[in-house]
From TrEMBL:
Sequence similarity: Belongs to the aspartate/ornithine carbamoyltransferase superfamily. ATCase family.
Name of this chain's protein: Aspartate carbamoyltransferase
Binding partners and assembly: Heterododecamer (2C3:3R2) of six catalytic PyrB chains organized as two trimers (C3), and six regulatory PyrI chains organized as three dimers (R2).
Binding site for carbamoyl phosphate: R54, T55, R104, H134, Q137, G271, P272
GO molecular function: amino acid binding; aspartate carbamoyltransferase activity
Pathway(s) of this molecule: Pyrimidine metabolism; UMP biosynthesis via de novo pathway; (S)-dihydroorotate from bicarbonate: step 2/3
PANTHER family for the chain: ASPARTATE CARBAMOYLTRANSFERASE, ORNITHINE CARBAMOYLTRANSFERASE, MITOCHONDRIAL
Biological process (GO), any one: 'de novo' pyrimidine nucleobase biosynthetic process
Annotated Aspartate/ornithine carbamoyltransferase carbamoyl-P binding domain residues: 2-146
């Protein structure tokens, strides 16, 4: 694995290896000294052309816990606002000796362009590109499911037989797309539930079940996992979206729907959440919610990915 651009590129053994290494990284984080010397002398650049809280901070924490040097680059306040191109920005970073580049960009495919270019010789990690993919989010989601659903017995296994219902703004969700491929590879069954206007054209060819009726789907499936997606208002055209009231009534995880879930099912959300729209405060803060665990697990997953890309161990995956 030279780069991590899409979960579609990951085979089952490769995906399980990343999850298992993340288990080791989680163990390190429970120690008094949370740092490993593994990436000493390496430089990781966080190249963020779009806003982020969780992903940017956890990549920074992950790189530092592996003893890498970290350069944080945000497009806001940089020469990108003066019109500097991705190529010139990348070549500037190359001149600074970047070994790994973590990139978030509003354009779907920007990480692929960077990885396939000769602008920079660095491992590239996709930290979210447009509506395309967010592979480390899917990996941390799978890691969280494995730990919650198979406590004490999570290493070495996939998610065979696990049922996952993903609800909401599928149209704009790179998290849904990355989860679709990874969860399938790991053996889970995935159902997408959304208003018809928030399902992308072509979704009927994806290896998932599609539904427009949340209550019927939850009653029928009694799923192990319910993952709520953020309504992405910033990418929304008014034509796509039912009123907020209508959306919450039909597709929101409110307290009443939460009470109808199996008590051992888990509630996930990648964040940031629109509380009161796609998820109620009661559901977000319930004992079934893994929202904060997902954030903590994100550091372990990103440590595993940086380790595999930059420590010289990456060939072990290919
Ligand atoms: N889940 C996620 O990508 O969150 P951020 O946008 O805060 O990074």
């Amino acid at each position: 694995m030279r780069h991590l651009l899409s979960t579609k590129d990951l085979g089952r053994a490769e995906a399980i290896q990343i999850l298992d290494i993340a288990e080791d990284m989680a163990d390190v984080q429970n120690r008094e000294v949370k740092k490993l010397p593994t990436l000493r002398g390496k430089t990781v650049v966080n190249l963020f052309f779009e806003d982020s809280t969780r992903t940017r901070i956890s990549f920074e924490a992950a790189a530092k816990r592996l003893s890498a040097d970290v350069i944080n680059f945000s497009a806001k306040g940089s020469s990108v606002s003066k019109g500097e191109s991705l190529k010139d920005t990348a070549q500037t970073l190359a001149a600074m000796g970047a070994d790994g580049v973590v990139i978030r960009h509003s354009a779907s495919g920007a990480p692929q362009v960077l990885a396939q270019s000769d602008w920079i010789d660095a491992g590239v990690v996709n930290a979210g590109d447009g509506t395309h993919e967010h592979p480390t989010q899917a990996l941390l989601d799978a890691f969280t499911m494995r730990r919650r659903l198979f406590p004490g017995d999570s290493r070495g296994r996939g998610l065979d037989g696990v049922s996952v219902v993903i609800v909401g703004d599928i149209l704009h969700s790179r998290v849904a797309r990355s989860n679709l491929w990874l969860l399938g590879t790991l053996g889970a069954t995935v159902t997408f539930v959304a208003p018809a206007t928030l399902v992308p054209v072509g979704a009927d060819t994806w290896p998932v079940d599609l539904s427009f009726d949340l209550d019927a789907t939850l009653a029928l499936m009694q799923p192990d996992v319910v993952m709520m997606l953020r309504i992405q208002s910033e990418r929304m055209n008014a034509a796509y979206f039912p009123s907020a009231r209508e959306y919450g009534r039909q597709w929101g995880l409110d307290d009443e729907r939460l009470a109808r879930l199996r008590p051992d099912s888990i509630v996930m959300h990648p964040g940031p959440m629109n509380r009161g729209l796609e998820i109620s405060a009661g559901a977000a803060d319930s004992a079934q919610s893994t929202v904060l665990e997902q954030v903590a697990n994100g550091v372990s997953i990103r440590m595993a990915v940086l380790y595999l890309l930059l420590s010289g161990e990456r060939e072990a995956l290919s």
